[in-house]
Automatic annotation (TrEMBL):
EC number of the protein: 2.7.7.65
Region of interest (Disordered), residue spans: 1-23
InterPro entries, A to Z: Diguanylate_Cyclase (IPR050469), GGDEF_dom (IPR000160), Nucleotide_cyclase (IPR029787), PAS (IPR000014), PAS-assoc_C (IPR000700), PAS-like_dom_sf (IPR035965), PAS_fold (IPR013767), Rev_trsase/Diguanyl_cyclase (IPR043128)
Catalytic activity, reaction form: 2 GTP = 3',3'-c-di-GMP + 2 diphosphate
GO MF term list: diguanylate cyclase activity
PROSITE patterns xref list: GGDEF (PS50887), PAC (PS50113), PAS (PS50112)
Stretches assigned to the GGDEF domain: 200-335
PAC domain span: 109-168
Name of protein: diguanylate cyclase
Species assigned in the record: Massilia glaciei
Pfam families according to UniProt: GGDEF (PF00990), PAS (PF00989)
Length: 338
């Protein structure tokens, strides 16, 4: 395509928008301004068809204007599956869906009708995932009729990545890469409140490495660290997507199992115990060939005016019994074992 045809692909004819009262020359000037903006921007008409797709937007998405102008296929530039952009929500009066489409990133709706939101976009053609901040502004004619929506985009991927890295430092254990104690406490409280609202069970496993002091004394701190890292991987390998495993402290790990019964928690606990034993890390204590773990399990159905600390205390007591009964085993609350 020649440079002349490429340039014309970014601009509409010099004619007024349907229903607009402004001269076509003014519209052409406005379109030219949009084209030259260094900020990525596109414009949809009242039928959600692309009217303008500026050069910065083409650079960001990897999609040239001629591929999308006059179509409603602009979503393909940002997502792998059909999904409304902010401009679509404004045009179709679907702003009540904003929280559903952007559940993790708060969106703003201004009295002027402008929507502001941010989220990760797949960017299929660009071949990279980007974190974009979007602003969608409606355009009305003299009679107050919506005739178009302008959506501008800001690429804040570097800033978001740096923020996530800092958050990870604050919530991750430096040795094992698991969630740290702070993250565990916050997550347990959040899951406790969720279980209370949804009236679902919440299970907890407390996992402790048996005779770790003897192992550490025999292999040194570096050997002990390597042991903990391998056990952390073994425990994490048994987790579902919504579970959380954390380094609770020292050689102790904690596993939060949302919406899991005690029977299900016991099954997970036994899989963890067996998986650690199968690592065959050499033990350094009489009668102990390999490093093992003891696990205490507990489950609660949260009720009003109860605290998550009750669940921790119950799991801790079960862990203590597993240790007392000879280690390398799981233990349930006494009421369940009776």
């Amino acid at each position: 395509m020649t440079s002349t045809s490429t340039s014309s692909a970014y601009r509409l004819p010099d004619a007024p928008l349907s229903g607009a009262s402004q001269p076509g020359q003014e519209h052409a000037f406005a379109h030219q301004l949009l084209e030259m903006l260094v900020i990525p921007a596109f414009v949809l008409d009242a039928r959600c068809r692309v009217m303008v797709w500026n050069k910065a937007c083409a650079r960001l998405t990897g999609v040239p204007a001629y591929e999308v102008l006059g179509t409603s296929e602009h979503w393909r530039s940002f997502y792998d599956s059909p999904r409304a952009t902010l401009a679509d929500l404004v045009i179709q009066d679907r702003t009540d869906e904003i929280d559903q489409l952007y559940p993790d990133q708060p969106a703003r709706y201004q009295a002027s009708g402008m929507l502001c939101a941010q989220n990760w976009c797949d960017m299929p053609r660009a071949g990279r995932r980007r974190f974009l901040v979007a602003d969608a502004s409606p355009i009305f004619d003299a009679a107050g009729k919506l005739i178009a929506v302008v959506e501008t985009l800001r690429d804040l991927t570097d800033e978001k990545t740096a923020q996530l890295a800092l958050e990870q430092l604050a919530t991750r254990d430096g040795l094992t890469g698991l969630a740290n104690r702070r993250c565990f406490d916050d997550t347990l409280q959040a899951e406790w409140m969720r279980a209370l609202r949804q009236q679902q069970p919440l299970s907890l496993l407390m996992v402790d490495v048996d005779n770790f002091k003897a192992y550490n004394d025999a292999h040194g701190h570096l050997g002990g660290d390597e042991c903990l890292k391998r056990i952390a991987l073994a425990v994490a390998g048994e987790m579902r997507a919504n579970d959380l495993v954390a380094r609770y402290g020292g050689e102790e790990f904690a596993v939060i199992l949302p919406n899991e019964s005690l029977k299900g928690a016991a099954i997970v606990a036994e899989r963890i115990r067996a998986r650690v034993e199968q690592l065959q890390l050499p033990g350094r204590r009489a009668g102990c060939q390999h490093v093992t773990v003891s696990i205490g399990a507990a489950t609660a159905l949260p009720a009003p005016n109860t605290e998550s600390s009750v669940l921790v205390a119950t799991a801790d007591a079960a862990l203590y019994r597993a240790k007392h009964m000879g280690r390398n085993r799981i233990s349930l609350p006494l009421a369940e074992q009776a």
